[in-house]
Amino acid sequence: MANREKNKKTLLELAKLPENSCCADCGAADPDWASYTLGIFVCLNCSGTHRNLSTISRIKSIRLDFWDDELVQFMKSNGNRAAKNFYEKYVPVFYYQPQPDDCEVLREQWIRAKYERKEFTEEKTERPYTAGVYEGMLWKKGKDNGQFLERKFVLSVHDFTLKYYKEDESKGPKATISVKGLNATFQPEKIGHAHGLQITYSVDDHTRNLFVYHKNGWEIVNWFNAIRAIRHVYLKTAFPTASDGDLIPWITRSYLKEGYMEKTGPLQREPFKKRWFILDSLDRKLLYFKTQLDAIELGVVFIGSENHGYSVRECVPKGTRGNKWKCGVIVETPDRQFVFMCEQERDQREWVEALKTVISKPMMPQDYTSKIITLLIRCANVAKHKWGVKKNNTLCPFQLKPISADGGEDRDWMAQ
Question: Does Zinc count among this protein's keywords (predicted)?
């Protein structure tokens, strides 16, 4: 008869070994569950997906459940390292491996890909997201009416583009998007669907969002990894001497912080307006939109480094008009002071911490290019707003953009 306490002690000791101390699937620390058919230790969240794979994986708590001697011996003979060496042997370098805080569909499809479909056990396994061309139907949010309509999307490595079409494909694509500045990140809560994906790109000096989903979790994750695959090829082509380690963070990325804040204009005497902010730490940009599901941003602030005169702090602004929220955040730049208001102190602390994370990082060569481009856009808008400078004018020979209808401060206070 199995010794319950002895086996529990053995399992807890196995779970403390370095190779088993993190979840085999998402990397969460201190897993309390184990698959006694796969021989791996997993966290509570991942154990839920394993329970749905009952023909492949059987789950027990290493603290609460009874374990037979044979099962304990099986766990001792296997473990997370052995499973990784077999089930993850040929994971493509671009393939996204979920982290503890990632959404359920990413975690579920990663687990199914490894243990159910065994996509990574053989080197030459056919994978749809590596074919060079990926196409299919996605539900896309309309720009104006907010309704989701089914649209055909085509992603191609041959011209590094993502295209989507309306009902009549004979008229050509509704939009052709370069993968050069393309990003994709799962946003199920924002979009209101468990498989919601936000695709972001640049067009005419603006950041543009597409919000899409697919009813099938496997399909939407395939789309996500197809985008990552083509982005990886593009980056390898554009930067042939860069290592995969340098390129991986740029394939796709989640944003450091998102949420509503109130903002005022450049004189700090304008009424505060509620806006949805996104902090992109890699591009060092704080973008804002009228709502969280807006297609086009209203403005962007470049966030430089501490060595270049940038700082952030909490504050209680005085003499401002129209602000309903009282937890202030001040961002200092070499030429401007920006004032934002948060609803709660927790939001205030999180924004300050996130902005400090960006400001504390030294600027890279490409950051200076981003800053200059953003500053040029601001100059163009100021010129048109004040002097009516037109395109190809010798004073300002680049394309000018109109001041946002949201108020003169929106495009006028962009980059410092």
Answer: yes
Q: Rounded distance, CA 216 to CA 353, Å?
A: 37
H helix or E strand, kind and range, residue 232: helix 217-238
**How far from 26 is each of 39, 227, 324, 339, CA to CA, in Å?**
16, 21, 40, 38
State the pTM of this model: 0.87
Q: Residue 106: how many CB atoms within 10 A of its CB?
A: 22
Question: Distance (Å, rounded) from C-alpha 350 to C-alpha 357?
Answer: 11
Sheet of 133-141: strand order equals 175-178, 161-165, 148-156, 133-141, 206-213, 197-203, 183-186
Six token digits for residue 12: 């807890």
Over residues 21-35, the pLDDT tens digits come to 999 999 999 999 999
Quote the CA–CA distance of 416 and 405 in Å, as a whole number.
21
The kind and range of the H/E element at 346 are helix 345-359
Q: How far apart are CA 105 and CA 10, in angstroms?
A: 33
How many other CB atoms sit within 10 Å of the CB of residue 6? 12
pLDDT, tens digit, 9 for 90 and up, residues 193-248: 999 999 999 988 789 999 999 999 999 999 999 999 999 999 999 999 999 999 99
Q: Which residue has the higher pLDDT, 406 or 161?
A: 161
Strand, coil or helix: 301: strand
Tell me how far apart the alpha carbons of residues 100 and 296 are, in angstroms, rounded to a whole number. Answer: 30
> In sequence order, what are the beta bridge partners of 329?
314, 340
Which burial class, exposed, middle or buried, applies to 63 when counting CB atoms under 10 A from its CB (0-12, 13-18, 19+)? exposed
Q: CA 357, CA 313: separation in Å to the nearest integer?
A: 12
Between 160 and 369, name the one with better pLDDT: 160
- According to DSSP, the residues that pair with 409 across neighbouring strands are none
Give the C-alpha distances (Å, rounded to integers) separating 311 from 306, 314, 335, 409: 6, 11, 12, 21
